[in-house]
Design brief:
Layout lengths: L13 E3 L5 E10 L6 E7 L6 E5 L4 E3 L2 E3 L4 H5 L12 H10 L26
Parallel strand pairs: 1-6
Antiparallel strand pairs: 1-2, 2-3, 3-4, 5-6
C-alpha cells in the first residue's frame, strides 16, 4: 500500500474484498512497532459489531476506498483480538498465517557456547 498516506485518513473509509463486495468501514489502523508504518486495519463488518483485521500490504487504496485482495469470507473469519489494544507479535503472526502471507523468519537463536572463555571448562 502507499506508505505516504496518513493512517488517520484511512479511518472511516469503506473497505471492499477482492470481488468488490463491501466488507465494512475502517475503524482503526495499527502501525508497525519498529517502523511506524501502517500495517493492519480493523474493519467494522457490521456483523455483531465485530472488527476484522486485514493487512494493509498488499491492499490498495483506490478512489478513496480500501481494496483488500482476499475473499470476504476469509476476512470475516480472521482471528478476533478486539480493537483499541496493541497487537502482540504472536497475534500478528496468527493474522499473517490466516491470510497465508509470508513472514520474515525470526532471527536464529544465539549459539549457547558463545561467550564462554577458552580454558575455563572444568574450573569450579
Amino acid at each position: 500500500m502507499q506508505t505516504d498516506i496518513d493512517p488517520r485518513h484511512l479511518i472511516g473509509r469503506k473497505a471492499y474484498d477482492r470481488n468488490g463486495t463491501r466488507i465494512g468501514t475502517i475503524d482503526e489502523v495499527y502501525l508497525d512497532d519498529a517502523t511506524g508504518v501502517p500495517e493492519w486495519a480493523a474493519i467494522r463488518t457490521g456483523l455483531f459489531s465485530r472488527d476484522a483485521f486485514v493487512p494493509l500490504e498488499p491492499s490498495e487504496l483506490i478512489d478513496g476506498a480500501l481494496h483488500v485482495p482476499f475473499e470476504r469470507s476469509l476476512i470475516k473469519d480472521a482471528p478476533d483480538f478486539g480493537v483499541g489494544r496493541h497487537l502482540s507479535p504472536e497475534q500478528e503472526l496468527q493474522l499473517y498465517h490466516h491470510y497465508g502471507l509470508d513472514v520474515a523468519s525470526p532471527p536464529p537463536l544465539p549459539d549457547r557456547d558463545f561467550g564462554k572463555l577458552a580454558g575455563q571448562e572444568g574450573h569450579a
